[in-house]
Design a protein that fits this description.
Layout: E1 9-12, H1 16-26, E2 33-34, E3 37-39, E4 42-44, E5 52-55, H2 59-76, E6 92-96, E7 102-105, E8 120-125, E9 131-132, E10 135-137, E11 140-142, E12 148-153, E13 160-162, E14 165-167, E15 170-177
Antiparallel strand pairs: 1-12, 2-5, 3-4, 5-6, 6-15, 7-13, 8-12, 8-15, 9-14, 10-11, 10-13
């Protein structure tokens, strides 16, 4: 099973100024809402430690970074070709305040009938000036820093989580590629 790590890639593509500006653009708006888990088409909140999410219009700013990460990933990964990835979801911004987290889960999801099941999960970390909030995948701590984009298959083989924030606010984003 160690070969599964071959399909997890981290790219440091976003510069700190870009990340700072994106955070500043969205941090105080009123569009943030509590994250909900979806199960069998019904919306239900899992627990009170859920992060805040915001569906974003930041696609224009993020698309070049997303495209670059997916392109590099496909060049390095056997059996996945860039022309197989036709599109990705709109970015979902994630805001983890003190006491919030994302429980362990896998991204084997079906967002909309038109999308199907995603092939890749693409996450970007916009800051690292917080405590706690470690990203774990398959039980191992992956040390991410501001500007990193992590790409991995959207399957049950890649369970991941963000541990509870103990100080500060953690900002990230996620898209799913189809």
């Amino acid at each position: 099973m160690d070969d599964l790590w071959h399909y997890v890639r981290v790219y440091n593509l976003m510069d700190h100024k870009f990340c700072h500006n994106l955070i500043h653009q969205y941090e105080n708006d009123d569009q943030w809402q509590k994250h909900f888990w979806y199960s069998h088409g019904e919306k239900s909140q899992y627990e009170d430690k859920e992060l805040d999410v915001r569906f974003s219009t930041a696609s224009v700013e993020l698309n070049p970074y997303i495209d670059q990460a997916i392109t590099e990933y496909c060049e390095e990964t056997p059996h996945l070709y860039r022309d197989q990835i036709k599109e990705w979801s709109s970015p979902r911004l994630n805001r983890y305040s003190e006491g919030t987290m994302m429980r362990e889960h896998s991204d084997l999801i079906r967002r909309h009938k038109r999308d199907g099941v995603p092939v890749l999960s693409v996450l970007g970390l916009m800051n690292d000036d917080f405590e706690g909030g470690e990203f774990y995948m398959r039980g191992e701590h992956l040390r991410l820093q501001a500007g990193d984009i992590i790409v991995f298959p959207s399957t049950y083989l890649y369970p991941h989580e963000v541990r509870e924030i103990t100080q500060g606010i953690r900002y990230s984003w996620v898209v799913w590629a189809y």
